[in-house]
Prior knowledge:
The chain is of the alpha/beta class. It has helices at residues 12-24, 36-46, 62-72, 87-96, 112-124; strands at 4-8, 28-33, 50-54, 78-82, 100-103.
Amino acid sequence: MKARILLIDDSKILRTLLGKIVERAGHEVAGYGEDGVQGLSLFLSTKPDFTLMDVTMPNMSGKECLEAILKHSPHAKVIMISGLADPEIEKDCLRLGAKAFISKSDLTSSGALEKQLNEVLKRFQ
């Protein structure tokens, strides 16, 4: 099933890369946000099937945006991503309500992020 996925990351390069991965996996990009404030606004206006969001961003962090999204839409499917290799960050994101956590280190492995993303999407569709 094709999903509409909102991408929120403060790095333009990573947003572009994530967009290519999402499209290569057969899904549609619902929009691109560069911080939590813009991400929340885009979430509310685009109503994506899934949101893929960075943890560390300016203006409003990914964790703060996650909480705001879930306040508006308790059943939202948010997948957090981070370049920080800290198991506590992953546990905290999942405790806050993220459906999954993906490490940005998987971006360096060909196809790993795409495979992980598809597994998460299948689990929650």
